[in-house]
Write a structure and sequence with these properties.
Blueprint lengths: L1 E6 L32 H12 L24 E6 L11 H5 L5 H15 L4 E6 L7 H8 L1 H9 L5 E5 L3 E5 L5 E6 L5 E5 L18 E2 L5 H5 L2 E2 L2 E7 H4 L3 E5 L1 E5 L3 E3 L18 E2 L15 H14 L6 H19 L14 H14 L13 E15 L3 E5 L3 E5 L2 H11 L8 H4 L17 E4 L2 E3 L29
Parallel strand pairs: 1-18, 2-3, 2-11, 3-4, 11-15, 12-15
Antiparallel strand pairs: 1-17, 5-6, 7-10, 8-14, 9-10, 12-13, 15-16, 15-17, 18-19
Helix pairs in contact: 1-3, 8-9
């Protein structure tokens, strides 16, 4: 196992145009196009792969093929990108760069996938963003649409793919203008049964009241009961032979850190199956918010009422405006809602469930004892995100590119770089201890290389000695060593 990290805080994304081509002609570069301006990202991705020792004997030659040990000609490759939400009207360009991956990182990665495939592989890239996200805006604002065009005119089969089956057009007030449901044959039903990590929440005969914002509680509940935990996974994803996760380096209000492992939520074509928290506070058996007063509990019940109405109706739209307004007021006052705090004991379980499915489910949704596809990761941390990610992170000019063939280790190293202790983040800590359907290949030797130096994970410190700001519901929790 190897994890390679390059850190250069002066690195910046290249300007739009020239489809993010490199500024120099590397020996292995498969095209004639060269950008007239600097491209820090392409150079860093290349150097990060070289630093990992991949196909080292051929580095500097036209035959260099760093991903060739994992990708063979004819295989289908899926690059799972963090494309969570389009840019908000009030969001600066720099803010947006902290939220979604940049097309220049994808471009460099795809070139090396193309080299490994011999030009014959089918390459898909994308994910399932939020139900109210505009896919057309996301691919335009990240520059991903230009990559699709670049490869198409060169006869290469690369396709930007929106994995959602349910899309709602929502205005700034939260009103639903239009709902689109796509072909249900595009998903595969996977039941983890008693192997689900959610199973531990069924204690003393209690049935957890699972919730996910903007979806009907009763529909969500129908996917989960004791011994039965169903997830709806994109068929296009499950048909892939190799998966490369391309996440952002950023925080997450519900799990602390969103990187490789949390990113697998993007393979679910219907998010209605994804528990994100349990209704009410801990005294009522939930983890939606810390034990609070009448205001937050009333707001919680309002959200249940709104979610139970049919989207687009007058009643729904009126109450949705009220819901959105009250939510903004509560957040401004520092109140926690929707499971956005360190006490959320649900989301990390769901996310690791989906990650295990990504590893072990075949194209028919049947779980196997051996991984069904190869998994790699390349983290876009040129601009990272701190504070209240994943949707409203504050940008950090971090200058990080991280490659790994072990996704748990990638998240652990990412946490260290951000100044967090991995044991304080359940989604990272627990990913190493999975008995059934394990994710980390912890039995093998792990090599971590940062800027040319081999290090242990304990030696990795925060960027420039400055930790990323924690989400507001996690303040004081992520920098400590915790065992549970």
């Amino acid at each position: 196992m190897v994890t390679s990290v390059l850190i250069d805080p002066s690195a910046v994304y290249p300007p739009d145009g020239f489809e993010y081509c490199p500024a120099q002609r590397y020996p292995e570069y498969p095209f004639n196009d060269i950008a007239p301006t600097r491209n820090d990202v392409y150079e860093m991705v290349r150097d990060c792969l070289a630093q990992a020792g991949l196909h080292a004997d051929s580095f500097g030659k036209s035959s260099w093929n760093p991903l060739g040990q994992w990708i063979a000609p004819g295989q289908q490759v899926f690059v799972l990108c963090n494309l969570v939400m389009n840019r908000r009207a009030t969001e600066t360009r720099f803010d947006f760069l902290a939220k979604c991956i940049h097309g220049s990182v994808l471009r460099a990665l795809m070139d090396y996938v193309h080299i490994a495939s011999g030009g014959s592989s089918s390459l898909l890239f994308g994910n399932a963003p939020l139900q109210g996200a505009s896919w057309d805006k996301i691919v335009r604002e990240t520059g991903v649409d230009r990559l699709e065009s670049f490869y198409r005119v060169r006869g290469i089969n690369a396709l930007a793919t929106d994995l959602r089956q349910y899309v709602a057009e929502i205005d700034d007030w939260g009103k639903v203008r239009n709902v689109r449901n796509y072909n249900d044959r595009e998903h595969v039903v996977v039941d983890l049964g008693s192997e689900s990590l959610l199973e531990d929440l069924y204690v003393h005969g209690a049935c957890p009241s699972f919730r996910i914002s903007d979806y009907r509680p009763d529909c969500l509940q129908s996917y989960h009961s004791k011994g039965r935990h169903i997830y709806l996974i994109s068929r296009k994803f499950l048909e892939s032979d190799v998966v490369i996760s391309l996440p952002k380096l950023k925080t997450h209000e519900q799990v602390g850190l969103t990187c490789c492992l949390k990113g697998f939520v993007g393979i679910t074509s219907q998010k209605i199956c994804l528990p994100h928290h349990r209704a009410r506070g801990p005294l009522q058996g939930g983890d939606e918010y810390p034990n609070g007063g009448l205001t937050i509990s009333t707001y919680s019940r309002l959200r249940d009422i709104v979610s139970g109405l049919d989207p687009g109706t007058t009643a729904f739209n009126c109450l949705k405006v009220l819901d959105r307004t009250l939510g903004k007021i509560l957040r401004a006052s520092g109140a926690v809602s929707a499971g956005a705090w360190h006490g959320n004991d649900t989301t990390w379980r769901m996310a690791l469930d989906v990650a295990r499915i990504a590893f072990y489910a075949d194209r028919f949704g049947i779980m196997h004892s051996e991984p069904q596809r190869i998994h790699l990761a390349l983290v876009d941390g040129i601009v990272g995100g701190e504070g209240n990610g994943p949707l409203k992170p504050r940008p950090v000019q971090s200058g990080v590119i991280l490659f790994s063939d072990d996704l748990s280790t990638a998240d652990l190293v990412a946490a260290r770089i951000m100044g967090y202790h991995p044991n304080s983040i359940p989604i990272v800590r627990e990913s190493f201890g999975l008995v059934s359907y394990p994710i980390s290949r912890k039995s093998g030797a792990t090599s971590i290389i940062v800027n040319g130096r081999s290090v242990t994970n304990e030696e990795i410190g925060p960027l420039g000695g400055r930790s990323f700001a924690e989400p507001s519901g996690w303040i004081g929790r992520m920098r400590e060593r915790r065992c549970g």
